[in-house]
Input
Amino acid sequence: MRKEIFCIQNYFRLKIAIFVFMLSHLLSFLQAQTPLKEGTKAPDFVLTDHEGKLHRLKDYQGKWVVLYFYPKDMTPGCTKEACNFRDYYKDFQELQAVILGISTDNPRSHKQFKEKYRLPFTLLADTAKQVCKQYGVLSPLGFAQRITFIINPEGEIVKVFTKVNPAVHAEEVKAFLLEQQKQ
Output
């Protein structure tokens, strides 16, 4: 009888330990990352574009960089945001700003997205999700969160947009760059 009670107690202890272990891992998985802060140096990275060409952040040193992360090609919000940047593209060129879009989609998906919506700027594929993690924008579901970093010519993050409205975001970014360049 004692042996049976001992076995039952151990069984329940094991079940509780497994439950606690799984719960702790689930909570750490669901915890959203915190984006890099303004005033920090933007980490360098190497990613491929829609044609397989490598891009490094340091290749754009000396220029303003609009580094915008987005969840998924061809989805309504991401399409709206990309087309908004497309529509203001000439304005960003006049401001000497480079637009780089990053998602966890692959280069082939980026190529289709760029061609369908005639996007004139570079889309980079972070299929390994390393840059998303580095910048603190990876969602618990494994997609990039919709967050934009403005990086000055010295490589410092000077603005982080965390609450992005895709329909007007390019206008917000343009206004911020205009203000920065007046200073």
